[in-house]
Amino acid sequence: MVIDLPEGGEAILIVATFWIAIVSVADGRWFAWRRRAHTPSPVLNAIAWAALWGLRIQMPYVYINSALAKLPVEQWSDGTALYYVVRMEFFGAVGPLGELARFLTGVPAISATLTWGTIALEAAIAILLLGSTKMQRYALWACIALHLAIAVLLGLVSFALAMVGAVTCATAAAFTQKAVLRQTHAAAQGAGSQTLRQEPSAMRF
After folding, report:
1. Do 12 and 62 form a contact (C-beta atoms < 8 A)?
2. Please, are residues 166 and 55 in contact by the beta-carbon 8 Å criterion?
3. Are the C-beta atoms of residues 139 and 125 closer than 8 Å to each other?
4. Most confidently predicted of 45-54, 72-81, 169-178, 187-196
């Protein structure tokens, strides 16, 4: 299931929810804050892992498709797109922030840098999402920066929340991997210490 993102975040929320629902099949809890009572079966784990990869592939597609779709558009290719975007009637920043945005985009060099930078950042996010765990973390921070700017300058808050939320889910493993490794290491150390405490008592018999 692959989609484009023409306007708002509703479509990506539907698809992200689809993948997340499948990921959840490996979690038998009725309430997410409870401890897991049992280890899920390998089959359910495999299904959940495949769904997580589905989301990881979905999000790069959305970003790279958005970046490539902008290239043939004259305003994006000549670097003037953001000049017009911040001056749209129904979108764009208002008040002092709007005045600042209009002033900055009124400078051709700044307008071109921001316009082409948006395309470059979208492409970078797509590439980073498919990389190592470290690259995925960078992708999330880049995503937050991009959509925070969109929320502030265009007022598309729900769109920003949808995209950041979907990317957060797609990169969740990159942020939890270290925690899982620490827990595993601590458990192994605890088991080792318990064994060492038991061995002397066994030698007394």
Report:
1. yes
2. yes
3. yes
4. 72-81
- Give a yes or no: residue 13 inside a domain: no
CA distances to 70, 142, 186 from 197, in Å: 65, 49, 16
Query: Does some domain include residue 141?
Result: yes
State the Cα angle at 63 between 75 and 2, rounded to 5°: 120
110-152 confidence digits (pLDDT tens) = 999 999 999 999 999 999 999 988 899 999 999 999 999 888 8
Q: How far apart are CA 126 and CA 120, in angstroms?
A: 10
14 part of a folded domain: no
Structural domain range at position 119: 51-185
Structure tokens that stand for 146 in this block: 């991009």
Q: Are 86 and 101 in contact (CB under 8 A)?
A: yes
CB 3 within 8 A of CB 62: yes
